[in-house]
Design goal:
Elements (H helix, E strand, L loop, with lengths): L4 E12 L2 E12 L11 E6 L3 E5 L2 E2 L8 E2 L2
Parallel strand pairs: 2-6
Antiparallel strand pairs: 1-2, 2-3, 3-4, 4-5
Length: about 70
């Protein structure tokens, strides 16, 4: 398994079918040893108190408990 690299952007607002999350962490994950660049990377977004809400092209559509606007 080759080491992967990540780039992070904290406090990004994100809106998915499960709700709006104004304070999320965006990560782009890629493997330069496989010839990938940041443009080839997988986009992931983690919402505070929820967890993973976007995994590349997949978005969270619902969650148990408090959903909707998380401001």
């Amino acid at each position: 398994d080759a080491p992967r690299q990540s780039s992070y952007a904290p406090s990004v607002p994100v809106s998915v079918p499960a709700g709006d999350f104004p304070d999320s962490l965006r990560a782009i994950d890629w493997n330069p040893l496989e010839g990938e660049t940041i443009e080839d990377g997988e986009d992931k977004v983690f919402a505070s108190g929820i967890g993973l809400v976007i995994d590349d092209v997949v978005e969270l559509t619902s969650c148990d408990g408090d959903s909707g606007s998380h401001e």
